[in-house]
Design brief:
It is found in: Membrane. With 457 residues, this protein is mostly helical. It is 75% helix and 2% strand. The chain has 17 helices and four strands. The chain has a two-stranded antiparallel sheet with strand order 1-2. A two-stranded antiparallel ribbon has the order 3-4.
Length: 457
């Protein structure tokens, strides 16, 4: 199949930035910071991005661009004069399963956000006067936890928005959306950051966010942070492999990988500045977990001048971040189905989006109401999709990618990286040794610890 390429390095970087920002940076990162003592988590996250994030971006970029095929067949072909065993494609299929798992609940969160935008815009969540935690909690229970019909409709609308973009083509649709949506996301984010930093009494929030309490840094925190790095960078579910398969051979992967890591870290840190200063200004605890942006932030907005406007802007920002991430994750599965089964793109899109909606989104959004009695490993369906994909498939796929590059591709991987990055030969040599010996050990530690915490503890 003839493959298009990104029109420029900038559009590819915007597409990658969109893929790696998402709820990982704007929803998941802030609530994990709140739960883990603030600055200690932020510092460890920045270190982890350097230790494992950027090297693994380069690993997946090398795999993806080498054959310029889908995320499963990328583990085929030959290397160093030998044909690669077909069994390695299992790594690609694990990535596909991980992508399915994350989309099963990710789109539902998108439905939550769309629902909140509508509720605030039409005054059903009235932020023109100060609300308390009891009010926002009851609203969350009524409109998110116990309203499957409304969330089903909102999730379906979000899926249809993705469909409209994806039918334009693998490169054209994602590239065009990233070109316009990412600048808008940055603009909204900066607006929210500036607004937060101009509130009275913000320094307590800034201090909590940036000052590390070294007593909070332990082995568990580091393992949790590494898991967030995988999630935030879309590592382990084929996104980097798929998007880099459309990269021209003369583009410098080293520079692109570095920019991607720095950009993602910067956006994640900025996301915290959208939230923590205002929480402390209005005396709200930052440790409310995954529901932080839905229960705590509406209280903040109700205390602000023009709070409804800023609330809609914030949730619109979340919606854009979700869209720029969901598109490339969908593309991982669509491209694989299209190329493996030789079917037309529109048919592949319909099968993937429809299948995930029926088998993933509907069970996930009913996990806290109609299907609340159904548990998997002691977790409801929504949490099970998250735990299984993040704890098992993401991590094992990343482990397989590192071993594949270090022990199977070997010199072929270095040759691929050096195309367009010849000036970084010494850096690539160090990277290859690190990927071959150190990263697999780190990932194994993450896997064992996460698996124990989620399924055995």
């Amino acid at each position: 199949m003839q493959r298009n390429s990104w029109s420029s390095r900038l559009t590819y970087i915007l597409a990658i930035a969109g893929a790696t920002v998402g709820f990982g940076a704007t929803w998941r990162f802030p609530y994990l910071v709140g739960q883990n003592g603030g600055g200690a988590y932020v510092l460890t996250f920045c270190i982890a991005m350097i230790v494992i994030g950027i090297p693994m971006i380069l690993v997946e970029n090398a795999i993806g661009r080498r054959l310029k095929v889908n995320a499963v067949d990328a583990f085929g072909g030959s290397a160093n004069g030998k044909k690669i065993a077909k069994g390695w494609k299992i790594v690609g299929w694990m990535g596909i399963l991980g992508a399915f798992g994350i989309m099963a609940y990710y789109m539902v969160i998108g439905g939550w956000v769309l629902n909140y935008i509508a509720q605030i815009a039409f005054g059903l969540l009235d932020l023109t006067h100060v609300v308390d935690f009891k009010t926002t909690s009851e609203f969350y229970e009524q409109n998110i936890v116990n309203n499957p019909l409304s969330i089903s409709f909102a999730t379906l609308v979000f899926v249809l928005i993705n469909y409209i973009v994806l039918v334009q083509g693998a490169v054209k649709g994602i590239e065009k959306s990233a070109k316009y949506l990412m600048p808008l996301l940055f603009l909204l984010m900066l607006t929210m950051v500036i607004k937060n930093l101009t509130l009275d009494g913000v320094m307590d929030g800034v201090k909590f966010y940036l000052t590390p309490d070294f007593s909070k840094i332990n082995a568990k925190l580091f393992v949790d942070v590494l898991g967030q790095v995988f999630f935030a960078l879309s590592l382990g579910f084929g996104v980097m492999i798929t998007l880099s398969s459309f990269v021209k051979k003369d583009e410098g992967l080293v520079k692109i990988s570095l920019i991607t890591g720095v950009l993602n870290t910067t956006i994640a840190v900025l996301a915290g500045f959208m939230i923590f200063p205002s929480l402390f200004t209005f005396g709200i605890e930052p440790n409310s977990g995954p529901s932080l942006v839905f229960k705590s932030l509406p209280i903040v907005f109700s205390n602000m001048w023009a709070g409804e406007l800023f609330a809609v802007a914030f949730f619109t920002l979340l919606m854009i971040a979700a869209l720029t991430t969901s598109l490339p994750i969908y593309e991982v599965i669509i491209t694989t189905i299209q190329e493996k089964f030789k079917i037309r793109r529109k048919k592949a899109i319909f099968i993937v989006l429809g299948g995930i909606f029926l088998l993933g989104n509907l069970p996930s959004l009913m996990a806290t109401n109609l299907l609340s009695d159904v548990t998997i490993f002691g977790k409801n369906i929504f949490d099970a999709y998250d735990a299984i994909s993040a704890t098992i498939f993401f991590v094992l796929t990343s482990l397989g990618c590192a071993i594949f590059v270090g022990w199977v591709l070997k010199d072929e991987a270095k040759k691929e990286i050096l195309q367009g990055s010849e000036q970084y030969k010494k850096v690539v040599d160090i990277w290859f040794w690190y990927v071959k010996f150190i990263i697999p050990f780190i990932i194994l530690v993450v896997f064992i610890s996460s698996f124990y915490d989620n399924f055995l503890k």
